[in-house]
Structures are given as structure tokens and as C-alpha cells.
Amino acid sequence: MTSSSSVHPKSTLDALPASFVSAMRVLFDVMDDQRTGHVRLADIEERWKENGSVIRGLVESLRKVTTANGLLTFERFCAGLRICLLRHDSNKRSQGQHSLPRA
Prior knowledge:
Number of strands: 2
Largest sheet: 2 strands, antiparallel
Structural class: mainly alpha
Shape: globular
Radius of gyration: 14 Å
């Protein structure tokens, strides 16, 4: 049996700044208006595309951690955001960019 401290999503949260995790919890809770503990990736895509606020690569990063039935827990949501941030940071270093790329 595995202990809960070795579960991957917890390590993902630990790797992010506490203030970032707290802000993302607020965002996740807004999207999880039914309080199920899950949000649908399709809903995120729809909401963020309508507002024109999708950062390039974000949806693709979230898709990588989405369950087969299209749902994201908070931990998976943060894991997807972390993937996107790491990719952006890597691209920024290689291209000398200083702002987040917009889709």
C-alpha cells in the first residue's frame, strides 16, 4: 500500500508557491460551481476562449493531465498549470521572451 505522502498530485502542489496554489484554488472553486471536486476540461476551454484569455499551451497542458472522462481534480488542474509554466519558462529562456504568450 502506498502512503498518501507519495501520491504524485501532492508533490505537484508542493512544487508550486503557496500563494499561487491558493489563488488557483479560488479559480478552481469558481469553475467548480456544483462543488463536485472536478471541473470539465471542455468547460475550461469554452470559458477561457470566450474571454480571449487562454495562454498558449495551457489547454494542451491541462489535456495531458485530464482523466479519460474529461475531468480535472484540483491537483490535476495544478499539475497541468505547472506543465504549462515549465514549458513557458523553458521557451522564454531559449527565445528571450519576457511575457506570457497569448493564443
